[in-house]
């Protein structure tokens, strides 16, 4: 889901993983973290990077910025993997445990994945309230936007998938 008015989330793309009566959790996939790569992250965790590609690590959100999450295709699952579904079925899975990192390093992990540090979290009813304000847009997520679209193109791609040309968006709203 693209953006919100908070400057920390400027042009953010957040993959919403949980949204129920207790609150919501999302992982940012629209901005890369500077100064760290996936192989570097593995080395910091004393995991031999092995076959892991040196992909970017994304800014998952402001909450627990040192905690890692892998959003991945549903062809791999671990003990604590959460499967995320939408109106059209399964979209992706999320794993926040070290087993997915080891699997990727060993070449037996998911076929598609995104690494993020941190997450965005909302308490009971908080996200629903924020969604009524300017700056939010809920788009249907797809594996293509998550895994086949470059990071810096995901924000526009999410709007485009909903039939919206981002060049026509106004940066401010008014009252009539």
Automatic annotation (TrEMBL):
It comes from Sphingomonas hankyongi. It holds the Pfam family DUF179. It comes from the Bacteria. Gene3D superfamilies: VC0467-like. Belongs to the UPF0301 (AlgH) family. This is UPF0301 protein LZ538_09890. Transmembrane segments: none annotated. The lineage of its organism: Bacteria, Pseudomonadati, Pseudomonadota, Alphaproteobacteria, Sphingomonadales.
């Amino acid at each position: 889901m693209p953006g919100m008015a908070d400057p920390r989330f400027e042009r953010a793309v957040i993959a919403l993983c949980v949204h129920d009566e207790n609150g919501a959790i999302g992982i940012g996939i629209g901005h890369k973290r500077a100064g760290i790569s996936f192989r570097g992250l593995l080395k910091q965790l004393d995991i031999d990077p092995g076959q892991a590609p040196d992909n970017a690590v994304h800014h998952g959100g402001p909450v627990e910025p040192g905690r890692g999450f892998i959003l991945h295709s549903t062809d791999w699952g671990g003990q604590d993997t959460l499967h995320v579904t939408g109106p059209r079925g399964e979209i992706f899975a999320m794993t926040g445990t070290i087993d997915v990192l080891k699997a990727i390093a060993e070449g037996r992990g998911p076929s598609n994945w995104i690494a993020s540090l941190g997450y965005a979290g909302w308490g009971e009813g908080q996200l629903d309230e924020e969604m009524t304000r300017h700056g939010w847009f809920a788009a249907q997520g797809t594996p293509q936007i998550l895994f086949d679209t470059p990071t810096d193109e995901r924000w526009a791609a999410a709007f485009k998938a909903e039939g919206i040309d981002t060049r026509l968006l106004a940066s401010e709203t008014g009252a009539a």
